[in-house]
């Protein structure tokens, strides 16, 4: 197993002179994005230090789902079994503006959402990261940095004072109010939004009538309650424990960052469900807005942005955590290849080129979902008509592809081929020894070549930005006139070899 240089991090020892690097990469923030990125880097033998301002994990459930594409990516690294053990539900559909949409028509082994609290995702990824020899340095808040030609000098604060750490790269995964993004001077354009929402985990003595007992579908978990108001209940696996969501898309409090009191949540429950529902405990509550913003750039020199530091949006469709984790999977192998000297600087530029449009598309579909708020007679009619359209298989597939990430396809240059830029579907491939599940070949984070002949191995290696190339002989491939396909470490096809003309 590859181990990072700093298996036991001593904050004082990380101070270094201007000519000595403390680590290869500093990751600011230990949320799902930062932890997934650190996992990818450590897997490639890159020295990485994760700095997290909180002294301990909050334990707050926050986001609740892994979309099908994120699930596929975790399976590539052998991380899915552990995530499933911590999950509490399998949800057979998604939603678009609370209109259910199915995953029918997508070639995937995971046509569902995995219900798992963000806190459990973070705990599991941190455990796996520690097993690789990399620990999260807690109570260490990044406050500033200076870029030089060959390194970044990162200044951070701990309880004992300020420290400095030099690295080849810094990645800001430090959330919507990212210090890294602000110090980098990257604009964060967008809209402040008009409304707000509240999420709270509540324990009922008496569950409201009609509430699901187990989360199996997005049907009947949320609904409009007025022209712009909404409410929803999602069971969280523990008896009587629910995620309560409510808000108003046309009313914004003076201070959206202010804490929401438990009394306010109790009143909202009373207004929504009356006295027939009784609550014994409110475990936590948080307020959020429908602001939407995206960083103009994801990279400036040796500093990059990912996750909420790069984009924020209303949590419509359950896309936020998933967008960040997929950022990390895209960035991880590219940054590792650059640090290890396997690739030139131009490869790292493709992170922004590929992920910025994906982030923009998510903000676009979230805005469309908010546009289906039934504010008037006309918008109610539009929403009803849209609901009818969403029942059509082609429409449902299109919408679910956007929200789930299954529809992502990266632009490739050169030969046109149906596989290029597309994701690995992970269906069994035929070999002389019998059927093989391709995802098992991606465990070490390298490139994977599926080929009917060894003749293309050397050519494929020239397209792989890493010495790690796993070759698998197969008897056939699913595309006509194709005898080799090369997959990147994040599971997207980047090169094919056509069958020679006879």
TrEMBL record:
Keywords linked to the UniProt accession: FAD, Flavoprotein
**Keyword Flavoprotein among record annotations:** yes
Q: Where does the source fall among the domains of life?
A: Bacteria
Q: Does the keyword Flavoprotein apply?
A: yes
Required cofactor(s): FAD
Q: Region Disordered: start and end of each range?
A: 417-437
Chain ranges of the FAD-binding domain: 23-365
Q: What is this protein called?
A: 2-polyprenyl-6-methoxyphenol hydroxylase-like FAD-dependent oxidoreductase
